[in-house]
Amino acid sequence: MTNKAVIIVDMLNDFVTGDLKTERAARIVPNLKKLIEAARKHGVPVIYSNDAHYKHDFEVVHKWGGHAIKGTPGAQVIPELAPREEDFIVEKRAYSGFYETGLEPLLRSLYRGKGVETVILGGLHTHICVRHTSADAFFRGYKIIITSDGVEAFTQKDHEEGLKYLKDVYNAEIKTVNEIIEDFEKS
Length: 187
Description:
With 187 residues, the protein is α/β, with parallel strands linked by helices. It has helices at residues 13-16, 29-41, 58-64, 103-109, 129-139, 156-170, 177-186; strands at 4-9, 46-51, 88-92, 118-124, 143-152, 173-175. The protein has a single domain (4-186), classed as 3-Layer(aba) Sandwich (Rossmann fold). Helices cover 36% and strands 20% of the residues.
């Protein structure tokens, strides 16, 4: 596997335990914790792509209501997956982790300026923020790996259709967390 980074999408209090709680999110927490720990152990950068909305943002006003408002407890990563000092946090105000954020320059700066070539995505939601972040990664030429047991959606149908779309449209490789960790160990 080429220079890679793990991107954890929206594993925030509001999405896991708060106002926009996805009951299904709890099942991916242990897998993401395992992935994050393995990435750190193998020197793979861990990046958190987090909603940090203003109260007047389009998503807040016109679609989902108040959620992940910047500076509130709801916009913080759940304690089980809390970032460490060596990790990176990139705030976003739209579905994609790339849209008007510093994610792309960060990815280019890693590996002593050689940049990331492969992004490994986990988090919420398979068919929304993971999908839109994957789209922008694809358009920028990144190889995409999706953690099949490290992403979730509101329903099983949304999740399965999301995975299929990511594979079919963005050529994403769908792997389990254990398969990804095995790849880390081979590198």
